[in-house]
Every structure is written in C-alpha cells, then in structure tokens.
C-alpha cells in the first residue's frame, strides 16, 4: 500500500516559484494502478518523488509503511523499487545483456552467478532473449522500452513505476507493452503514468486523474465513464461546423452524406440533429477536464 497525504512540491523561490503538486491525497493498493493526466499535470514529479529522486516540499508519503521523508525510508523503498522513467539514458554501444547487467550492479546485485541468472530471466520475460547480445543502438523504440522494463525488473521489485512507457510506440508494440505490464501486476504493484487514455482503459481497474497538480478523480474506469453520461452527442452535418464554447469535438468522421461529429459538453445548439451517445472512457476524461475548467 502506498499512502500519500497532503503532498506538495514547489520548484524555485519567491516570484519565480512554481507549484507542481498541490496537496495530493491518494492511496494506491497492490495490482495495476493508472495515473492519467495531460502533459504538465505533475505526474512525472509525483513519480520521481515516489522513486526517491525528488524530495517533496510538504506532506507525507509512505510505501509499505516506510516514510520516504527519511533516508532510511528512501533506502528501504529503493530496495523494492523498479523504475522506468520517461527518458531512460542508455549506452548504445552496449548490448541489451550488458546494459541490464550494468544496471543490476548499480542496484546491488553483487553475486555474478545470481546476477547473470536474473539478467537472462528478465530479458526472456520481455521477449528479448534472442537479441540479448545485440547492441542497443540497433534496437527499435519498442525494443528499447522493453530493455527499460528489463532493467527495472532485474532486482525483482515489489513496486514498479513506469512513466509514459508507450509514448511513440507503434500500435503492435503498444499492445505488447500493455499486456506485459498487466502480467507483471499479478504479483506486485505497477503504477502506469500516462496521458494516453486508451492505455489506462485497456489495463487498469483503478485510476486517478491528475491535472494542474491536483487529483480531479479517483475511482474505476466505469465511474469515470459515468461522469460523461448525458454529455456526449453524435451529430451529422453537411458542412464543417464550429461548435459553440463549452463543447469539445472528440472525433470527426467524413461520410458519404456529410461529417459525423462526436461531441462532449452541453446539448449542442449548433447541431439541431444531435442525439445522445453512449459515453466511453475518453469522453469521461474530456468531461472531467471540462468540469475542472468550469469550476
């Protein structure tokens, strides 16, 4: 269990200070957990605090009962932590096996035999065993992300944090990566931080939405979808329309007889033929952001 209460983070001082986190209260149980929000919402700051890389400005944070405000708590948490940051620096001249072995040494795996066993095991788990001796510089983006997961898993962590892991991947790699994360969550806590709604919808039963350093929503995907009920519309027009303020165009599809719009917000006056539509997770997310702006 991860317990966060009143967590704040401010960068800089005086007039140049910026508040990245504004009193976060959140409990994260074991299993797969999604942290969803736009770029700049504070997700990476929160993940870096959880990983012990950045110190919070205020509030409390406990991981498995360990207080991350103390050095002893940070050390204890790092021993059970696997972390894949948004940008993981790699050495392109190293092979996949050499890089993961190097990261294993940094994590304190001193026994050469045990380390070699763990490196082989995690590379097999991410389906890279056949290219373990190839240099990373020849890998695709998806393969590099799998090397990143391998290094995060090499110390067999009980807490795995992945920050925007599927950004830039093609659809096939994204699906493969999502399935891998769900499998990993069977016996540990996996926190998936992303701005991609679909990744959360396909992997998580429990999520939080973060925006402007604040938690806007905490619950299940079904509950987030319910938030858009009565605010999603489908309409067809024979020409391009400019919806009124307060409406968000979620999608536009050119058909033989016109343009089909999917809209989120109040009933559209600019589309007299608009009919209610069944909401999805993306609609719920859009409606939540609208409500936050209205408030």
Write a structural description.
- With 295 residues, the chain is of the alpha/beta class.
- The protein has two domains: 2-221, Rossmann fold (3-Layer(aba) Sandwich), CATH 3.40.50.300; 226-294, no CATH class.
- It is built from nine helices and 14 strands.
- The strands form three sheets. Strands 6-7-8-3-9-10 form a six-stranded mixed sheet, sandwiched between helices.
- Helix 3 (96-106) crosses helix 4, helix 3 (96-106) runs parallel beside helix 5 (141-153) and helix 4 crosses helix 5.
- The chain starts with a strand and ends with a helix.
- The model has no long low-confidence stretch (mean pLDDT 92).
What would you say about this model in short?
With 295 residues, this protein is α/β, with parallel strands linked by helices. It contains nine helices and 14 strands. The chain is globular, with a radius of gyration of 22 Å.
**Main sheet makeup:** 6 strands, mixed
Structural class: alpha/beta
Largest sheet strand order = 6-7-8-3-9-10
Beta content comes to: 25-35%
The CATH class assignment of the largest domain is Alpha Beta
- Under CATH, the topology of the largest domain is which? Rossmann fold
| Form type | globular
User: Taking Cα atoms only, what radius of gyration do you get, to the nearest Å?
Assistant: 22 Å
Give the SSE order as H and E letters: EEEHEEHEHHHEHEHEEHEEEEH
List low-confidence stretches: none
The CATH superfamily of the largest domain is known as P-loop containing nucleotide triphosphate hydrolases
Count of individual helical segments: 9
Indicate the percent of residues in helices: 25-40%
**Can you give the mean pLDDT?**
92
Overall domain count: 2
